[in-house]
Amino acid sequence: MVGSATPRVSATVVLSKPALQRVLDNLGNSGFQLIGPTVRDGTLVLAGIGNISELPVGWALEQKPGSSRLLRINSTDYFGCTVGPHSWKRYLFPPQTDLLTAHRNGKGWVFEPSPDDAPPFAFIGVRSCDLHAIAIQDDVFVNGNIRDPHYAHRRERAFIMATNCNTAASTCFCTSMKTGPRVHSGFDLALTELPECFVIEIGSEAGSDVLAGVDWQPASAFDLGRVSQLIQRTERQIQRQLTTSDLPKLLYDTIDHPHWDVIAMRCLSCANCTLVCPTCFCSTVEDHSDLTGSDTKRTRVWDSCFILDFSHLHGGNSRPTIKSRFRQWMTHKLGAWIDQFGRSGCVGCGRCIAWCPMGIDITEELSTLRSLGAR
Amino acid sequence: MSTTVLLDRAATADPMLPYMATVRAIRPEAYGISTFSLEYDDASVPLGFAPGQFNMICLPGFGEVAISICSDPNSPKIMEHTIRYAGSVTRAIGRLRVGDSVGMRGPYGTPWPMQLAEGKDLMIVSGGIGLAPLRPVILEALHRRSSFGRVLVLYGGRTPQDLLYTDEFEKWQNGGIEMYVSVDRADETWKGQVGVIPMAFYRTRLDHRNTLVFSCGPEIMMRFVIYEAMARRIPKEAIYVSMERNMKCAIGFCGHCQLGPVFICKNGPIFRFSQVESFFGREEF
Amino acid sequence: MPANGKPRVAVFKLASCDGCQLQMLNLEDELLDLAGQMEICYFLEARSQVLDGPYDVALVEGSVTTEHDLERVRDIRRKSQTLVTLGACANTGGIQALRNMQDVDEYTRAIYANPAYIHALAQSTPIAAHVTVDFAINGCPISREQLLEVLTSLLIGRSPQLPAHSVCVECKRKGTVCVLVSKGIACLGPVTHAGCGAVCPGFGRGCFACYGPMESANADSLCQGLAARGVPRPEILRLLNGFTGWAEEFRSAAERLERATT
Ligand code: SF4
Ligand code: SF4
Ligand code: SF4
């Protein structure tokens, strides 16, 4: 089972920890740019990596509402940190996308699509919540009648190495959203990190191919049992809950609830929650031209329903207050999204809770609305 | 006969990429409002639109705006757009001359349900520039006048100068369309009715079992229209409204045009009232 | 912009440090192009030639601190089609507005040998307190990019894009890690007008609001949040009373914070 042969799709294999480097090398040699979790500026970010030593070995993320701190821990796990402020949407739906250029020629214009020279990405260590978030953005950008070629171009070429969570943060609530912690589908490889090895499920031909030349063993029933136990332990760590059974109705019924005013006293409308959220997809389009106006670049940039201009209307703004913007965010995320796309817009990753400067907690606000009752 | 042509934009490589179009005519309508006739330069651009659909029109450096098509769907080669100079882009469009170029892509959005109106009375209620997306309905009804029962147009503006397409009213009337035009504030030139448009409901009898209402105008006006229509036992399933929100892409990506569970760009702009009832006119929603 | 001929542009300075005008000179790469597109009628920092108004565009730096400033700014407004203010001083009164909460006479007596020559108004005030401002470029100093955006858009005749959202949006778009959440560093970014590109958080420092308040700034809430994180009240007050401390949103938040009993 060593060396030349590659495992078949849906097989589960065991790799020594150092052997993961070989997998990364194979990916790199096939032209992928590897993106993975790494420690930078004192926190966990997603960035280009090449070596497994760049993964956050020996670190843990302690997350609370409004706070996220890296802690040194005594561990040799490569994937022991949960999610930081970045999500994979930075790479699939980047903060700024060049859409097209317009060049004036005589009386008219020549419009040309802007090329995207991004290399294919290999995402290393995608957690189940984020895997669902990618699927949710697929709903928006490629699963509808009209495909977004910019997103599609990156998405179709992306290699996904998922990871089952061996630890959860206090902000996680994937179990409520049925998005984790176990990875089920939508990956090329799915890792589970045990203390001395990786157990890897092969999800695709591409996943199988990158194990070429790597030492692997078929996983035993015992290995699989340990994987399940580990995930169950993670599941038990998850304390935070969000009840979904009465959604979206609860949110539609509470549109006029005075509790929105209470939240609006605290909320800063800073938009952090939407920009860290792995599913938020709103954008605006900007034109930038040279001084003579003959060359224009049209770009798409991340926008947010918390930004006043987002709701600009001729003759007024449809959401002038912080209250109306917060209500839009939460009502969309947890409610209207279900009507629009058939599933919730929240995957329970907890980013909005940790990265809100005020520590506003979507799970708590929802249960407050529920307990105060429809108005 | 015009069919509901919903072009398959998915087939084009880049749905955000505009085609070049040329301004063929500019007709001033009211203060700060003109109608622009636009034609694609490239004859291979697929043509055809249905009443109520809109185009995205752009001027590089200024940006894009959604503008409903206000011309006859039976002659889709030159499409007319009535534009109010309200923002950066529309003001720049206002500076164009015949022969100048713009970028254009479309058509987008849901149309008015013309098929459903066949054999029924059709009541068209609009205010101000809201008549623009309904003009194709009127022109279509004139083409196939016998397919419909009564066709009524209730139209109001703030002053006589704010009314659009006034030089066509006589033709519409001669074509068998009942016109009820009123203004909020009359001047010495005005011979017609004075009063807000929902009042026009009191001047005619409706067959509530057999009438479809199409309405476009300020939300506050539409609210009264809906109220008056329902007071006459017209079911909310028979009332259609056109909604407006800021839009950046028109194809469901940018998120700007959401109203509760719907995207105005792809689920609208034309909605059956019962579809949007719970969110209609909700303050700051 | 005038239909024929180049737009006539003038750059004026009231009470300020010249830093914003310098940003204009810093537009090295674009300056030649700019000079070709418009007629610079008045820009003492750059050239001595002085052409009288009227002007199509007046760019005004600095706050109103003296009677003379006041007369000048009214005169500039009369002569100019479009008035653009440059920087924290022009938009909020600037760092010199710190004196607004003090007794100016006492200051002048303490500092100047001949206080009789000092004709300062009681307060340093933003230009918009006296005349209508068409566009405001924020910052201390302003950013070259925003200045260029305003000049370009005035040249081609559209409204400039000067987003009024928070600095946080810039942090997140850039991928800069939030210093407040990850390190507990006091940061005014969530209530501050964007435009700088989140420079300070990019260097691991908190934002000190040199771009002034964002739209719908909820400074009261942020103050409470900072206090709850253990930032001492004098520290929060010091942050609020900075470059744009005289802006209504920050001034009133500071007053409430001072009054509040903890
Ligand atoms: S909920 Fe928090 S992160 Fe979101 S806009 Fe309000 S204060 Fe900012
Ligand atoms: S709403 Fe919050 S918890 Fe849910 S997916 Fe977005 S960031 Fe994560
Ligand atoms: S560092 Fe400051 S400006 Fe940046 S996201 Fe955090 S609070 Fe906002």
Short descriptors:
heterotrimer, A: 375 residues, 2 domains, 8-stranded mixed beta sheet, 16 strands, B: 285 residues, alpha/beta, Elongation Factor Tu (Ef-tu), domain 3, Rossmann fold, disordered N terminus, binds iron/sulfur cluster
Describe this structure in words.
In chain A, 31% of the residues lie in helices and 24% in strands. Chain A has 13 helices and 16 strands. Chain B is α/β, with parallel strands linked by helices and 285 residues long. Chain C folds into 2 domains: 8-156, NADH:ubiquinone oxidoreductase-like, 20kDa subunit (Rossmann fold, 3-Layer(aba) Sandwich); 167-261, no CATH class. Chain C has a 5-stranded parallel β-sheet with strand order 2-1-3-5-7, with helices on both faces. In chain C, strands 4-6 form a two-stranded antiparallel ribbon. The structure holds iron/sulfur cluster (3 copies).
Quick structural summary:
The complex is a heterotrimer of chains A (375), B (285) and C (262). Chain B is built from 7 helices and 15 strands.
Q: What does the secondary structure layout of this molecule look like, with pairings?
A:
The complex is a heterotrimer of chains A (375), B (285) and C (262).
Chain A (H helix, E strand, L loop, with lengths): L11 E5 L2 H11 L3 E8 L2 E6 L10 E6 L2 E6 L16 H4 L3 E10 L2 E6 L7 E6 L1 H14 L7 H9 L1 E5 L10 H4 L11 E5 L3 E6 L2 H5 L7 E2 L2 H17 L11 H5 L5 H8 L5 H5 L6 E7 L5 E8 L9 E2 L2 E2 L4 H20 L9 H4 L7 H11 L3
Parallel strand pairs in A: 2-8, 8-9, 9-10
Antiparallel strand pairs in A: 1-11, 1-12, 2-3, 4-5, 6-7, 6-14, 10-11, 13-14, 15-16
Helix pairs in contact in A: 9-11
Chain B lengths: L18 E12 L2 E8 L13 E6 L3 E6 L9 E7 L3 H7 L6 E8 L5 H4 L3 E7 L7 H9 L7 E7 L11 H6 L3 E6 L9 E2 L16 E6 L2 H13 L7 E4 L15 E2 L2 E2 H4 L2 E3 H4 L9
Parallel strand pairs in B: 7-8, 7-11, 8-9, 9-10, 11-12
Antiparallel strand pairs in B: 1-2, 1-6, 2-5, 3-4, 3-6, 12-15, 13-14
Chain C lengths: L7 E6 L5 H7 L2 H10 L1 E5 L11 E7 L2 E3 H13 E7 H6 L11 H8 L8 E6 L9 E3 L6 H13 L10 H8 L4 H5 L15 H4 L16 H10 L4 H8 L7 H12 L3
Helix pairs in contact in C: 11-12
The structure holds iron/sulfur cluster (3 copies).
